[in-house]
Recover the amino acids of this structure.
């Protein structure tokens, strides 16, 4: 159920040509409607917006107890939840606010994304919960994240990429020739590519949006931009039908795909075939 809501939120953002995973706006984009003054001010949107946590991870038990319960299951999905519990607390302790997943932002408040800033009750909850986070806990999130990424939990390798080499986001630019950084980079890029080629929508979205311009980790690559974007459209077509906004937005010969990358006709044909293979894999995987 969590993945369904996360993808629904991503789809809303994609309709606008915005990647939920690589947002550059400081606040959520809204339609031009009146917003009550009592509505909490939205927090700054991080590069990767946390998924909604399960009820097990949002109870009133102390942070250490919740982490112990999640880790004791030896389930990589729960390791990923443990990572987000700590990451959320780390964000809250630094910013005194964080993004909250709330579909009512879309269904009732007519916002374009299902995230908002925290209300007073949620801030009190996190203030109590996160006060119990030790430095050892804060650093342990990398171990939980590594467990989830190794198991192929959707979204985990993206978080590894966002956290940077060994938790140092600056290492890619300050120590690019460090053998350990280069080894980390090669492994992360390899897993990102494998998950994208398998049809994981979160990874496809992450890579297409980053290959448009390139950065310290991911090189600019118009061919891959086209492949991964078109693959998303094909997968959404299978999931929601050919009239789905995501399917039409990423149509191979649509306005976005024709304007955002400059490829020769034969290159487009080759990458479109590669995108179709990705969509075929995703369709087969959904049957199991």
């Amino acid at each position: 159920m969590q993945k369904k809501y996360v993808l629904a939120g991503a789809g809303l953002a994609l309709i606008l040509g915005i990647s939920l995973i690589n947002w550059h706006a400081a606040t959520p984009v809204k339609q031009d409607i009146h917003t009550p003054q009592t509505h909490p001010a939205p927090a700054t949107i991080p590069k990767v917006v946390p998924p909604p946590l399960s009820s097990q991870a949002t109870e009133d038990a102390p942070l250490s107890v919740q982490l112990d319960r999640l880790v004791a299951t030896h389930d990589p999905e729960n390791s990923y939840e443990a990572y987000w519990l700590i990451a959320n607390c780390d964000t809250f302790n630094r910013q005194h606010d964080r993004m909250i997943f709330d579909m009512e932002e879309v269904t009732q408040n007519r916002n374009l994304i299902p995230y908002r800033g925290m209300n007073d009750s949620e801030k009190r909850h996190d203030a109590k919960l996160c006060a119990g986070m030790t430095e050892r806990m804060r650093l342990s999130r990398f171990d939980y994240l590594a467990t989830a990424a190794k198991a192929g939990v959707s979204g985990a390798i993206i978080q590894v990429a966002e956290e940077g080499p060994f938790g140092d986001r600056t290492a890619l630019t300050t120590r690019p020739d460090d053998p350990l950084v280069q080894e980390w980079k090669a492994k992360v890029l390899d897993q990102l590519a494998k998950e994208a080629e398998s049809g994981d929508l979160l990874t496809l979205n992450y890579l297409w949006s980053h290959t448009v311009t390139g950065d310290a980790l991911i090189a600019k690559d118009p061919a891959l931009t086209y492949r991964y974007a078109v693959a998303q459209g094909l997968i959404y077509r299978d999931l929601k039908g050919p009239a789905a906004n995501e399917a039409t937005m990423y149509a191979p010969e649509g306005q976005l795909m024709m304007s955002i990358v400059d490829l020769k006709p034969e290159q487009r044909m080759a990458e479109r075939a590669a995108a179709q293979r990705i969509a075929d894999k995703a369709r087969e995987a959904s049957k199991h």
